[in-house]
Amino acid sequence: MKLERLLSILIVLLNRRQVMAKELADQFEVSIRTIYRDIETLNMAGIPIMTQQGANGGIRIMDGYKLERNVLTYDELASILTALQSLSTAHTLNQQPMLAEKLQMLVPEAQGESLAMHLQRFQIDLSTWGKYPFLEHHLALLKRAVEEDRVIQFQYVDANGSVTQRDVHAYTLLLKSQQWYLYAYCTIRNDFRLFKLFRMKNIQLLEQHFDRNEFTKEADTDVTLNSLSLSQPWNNWTAPENTTEIILSFEECAKSMAEERFGVEALVPQPNGTYQVTVAFPEDRWLESFILGYGPYVEVVSPPHLRDRIGSLIEKMAAKYQS
Predict the structure, then answer these.
(1) What does UniProt give as the signal peptide span (predicted)?
(2) Which 8-state DSSP code applies to residue 17?
(3) Which residues does 52 contact at the CB level (< 8 Å), separation at least 6?
(4) Do residues 125 and 86 make contact, with C-beta atoms less than 8 angstroms apart?
(5) For helices 2-15 and 32-44, angle between their N-to-C axes, nearest 10 degrees
(6) Which CATH number fits the domain that encloses residue 145?
(7) Looking at 237, 262, 288, which one is the last position of a domain?
(8) Are 98 and 32 in contact (CB under 8 A)?
(9) Please, are residues 151 and 208 in contact by the beta-carbon 8 Å criterion?
(10) Structure confidence by residue, pLDDT tens digits, 156-185
(11) Is the backbone peptide bond immediately before 303 cis, with ω within 30 degrees of 0?
């Protein structure tokens, strides 16, 4: 989202001699403060943008600067356009429909047909299989909170069904495995947390703002336009120190399901006709539901304590149906 806005702002400034910050803010539906923060990011990337106060002031690129056609290779442009195309499948939030067309202007006319064929060959669809009417509204609220550094309030239902009231500093909106999450600083836990959008309800956008710079070091997040590098602290969930090595045994009838989840090469045939998979997962409620989701066609080989826990859950499930 931010990258798309940065590219759009750059193209606007290249096409116009000078533009007001408020005009950019209205065009991209963000605050003026966000626009100035974007301008600072572009300056750090080596693009000479000047701001001038006063009646005749505004934002402009220094005279003589231009974005050459050969600043991006054909393959790089094709990759960017494919990425933009895929983003449009993930949500319907304030996409800049002209951005892809503007970027295509950087492609030499002789390569235009080849680019069109490339975009037909490679498709990335990030949308979910089902439709969720509330999703667009909730995403719009969270997007605004993230871009304007706003505090939001909501009720959160955790995996155990417990409901808590949360006030959080909205830091990052994350799409991972076709699920939307909010990475935010929780004022109740006094720490960063990852909140699943489907577990949030009664989302309220508060007037209170927070200083993002105060959290940059604590969140261990470093974003630069030059390298497009992003440290992703939410991936600590699957870090080696937070996971346990697990061996699962699948029956022949569940082989295709296991191949789809773990990959064909991960399955090791056994003399008794089953297939074993060795994986590393965090031990939590998600793992229990994941294993039980394969029904009677999977068996936990190790570790022993997980095998015992799954066995106990199965006994409790069976007891519900004995009557």
Answers:
(1) none
(2) S
(3) 58, 59, 60
(4) yes
(5) 80
(6) 2.30.30
(7) 237
(8) no
(9) yes
(10) 988 777 899 999 999 888 887 777 899 999
(11) yes
Decide if 244 contacts 282 (C-beta within 8 A). Answer: yes
The CA distance from 2 to 8, in Å, is 10
How many domains does one find in the chain? 2
CA dist 162 and 198 (Å) reads 14
pTM (2 decimals)? 0.53
Please give the Cα distance from 34 to 44 (Å, whole number): 15
Q: For residue 22, give the 3-state DSSP assignment.
A: helix
Judged by DSSP in three states, 157 sits in strand
**Of the residues 184, 209, 237, the one at which a domain ends:** 237
Residues in the chain: 323
As a whole number of angstroms, the distance between CA 71 and CA 7 comes to 13
Both tokens assigned to 247: 């061996």
> Of the candidates 80, 86, 84, 110, which has an alpha carbon nearest to the alpha carbon of residue 97?
84
**Residues 46-81, buried b or exposed e (16+ Cβ, 10 A)?**
ebebeeeeeeeebbbbeeeeeeeeeebeeeebbebb
